[in-house]
Amino acid sequence: MLNDFTWNMTGYILKHPVNPSVSGIIPYVAERIFQLEPEPPAVDSLNEYILSALHEKDLKYFSFFLHYYEPQLNKRIKDFLGVDGGDLYGTERFIDIKLSCREQMLQKLMDYDPAKGAEYATYIFPFIRDAMLRFRMGEEKWSVSSLTNYKMVRSMAWLYHNTKDAVSEFSKKYNCELALAEEYLKVVRGIRNQQPFYVTDEDGEETGEDVALDDSWNYTDILWNGIQAEKVQRAFEKLNYREQTLLEKRLAICMTCGRVGSWKDRPTFEELAVLFEGSTASGAERAYRKAVDKLTELLVAEDAIHAVRLKQKSKTKRKKKIAAAIYEYQADCDGEWGEISLDFENGTAEIIRLADWDTMKTNRFANKAIAYLLNCENEKLPKETMVAFEP
To answer: If you ran DSSP here, which 8-state letter would residue 6 be given?
Structure first.
């Protein structure tokens, strides 16, 4: 039992201490919450830390392990969320998932048997995945009895969206009766009618599910799943035919009923250009971006979402990379612009001037802008853009 262990961190402090309940944590810090100062003593293999923890019954060695293992854990969580270095993700949620993984790793520490030949990082791999799934299961609040049942529901959801006969495929996969498969299909359909549903899972090779379509941040989630459908429909009806067509086809969503299609089958910009004679792929993409911005503004006017508009005011380059920049930002497409300064080399930012309508205590719009820009790939930092988020 871990009750017999000590956790003596004398001589070490967290390099980036955070309070998970505080908003506005930047990605740079969120991805380094287990980093220690000074650095733990180097070892030939991370497994040596785990063996020392078990032998000496001191969890400081577990902390040493986390210090060096954290980049791998970050990658697993990002893969699970479906984001890469240029995507925006909620840092508070990211930290919550990471802490859930750490708790699972601790709980499984006593069950680890080095004599079986596997290193701890290999042994813990499936349990980390279970921790992330269990976290999402809690968010989605489905009426499922166990994590195993939850996985089967998600598997059926993927089959439902990607095969012609989901019931037969499910029956073959789990060697079960067709009647049981049909019951799972009923559950999936019920969930689809009640709330947002992400049909894929992290470990694509194991389940046949597509990682790229997982819980990624995109306009489909924001424009339909998180808000009232009536507001979406009112805003959508104010667009012209071309704008409506571009949005529905590119987002693979029906704005009338909210049904989301497979992103695998959505048309390319080249294919969209064919729909409008005289248009090019780049022209179709520009038209799509304008349609997204227009719909975003309409949804802001409906109080359905928030949005922050960004304009790059100046930048400083060092070794062909943007080392620092100043951006203007506007809250909810209205009022006087604010200003933020960003140091991309150190992953820090400063609010120079608040925009109209930004919140005085939490600086919500400025912090959304900062989180987005600090998490962008340096070469993809925008000159102008608009970032939408839920209220």
So the answer is: B
Read off the pTM.
0.46
Categorize the per-residue pLDDT at 142 as very low, low, confident or very high, splitting at 50, 70 and 90. Answer: low
Are the C-beta atoms of residues 358 and 364 closer than 8 Å to each other? yes
- 33 and 107 share one domain: yes
**6 shares its domain with 134:** yes
Q: Rounded to the nearest 5°, which phi and psi values hold at 349?
A: -150, 160
219-272 pLDDT tens trace: 444 444 444 567 777 888 898 888 888 888 888 777 665 566 666 678 888 888
Domain boundary among 96, 122, 138: 138
Q: Who's near 308: CB < 8 A, 6+ residues apart? A: 329, 330, 331, 332, 365, 368, 369, 372, 386, 387, 389
Its domain, for residue 335, covers 306-389
Are 15 and 100 part of one and the same domain? Answer: yes
The token pair at 30 is 């969120």
For residues 14 and 91, state if they share a domain.
Answer: yes
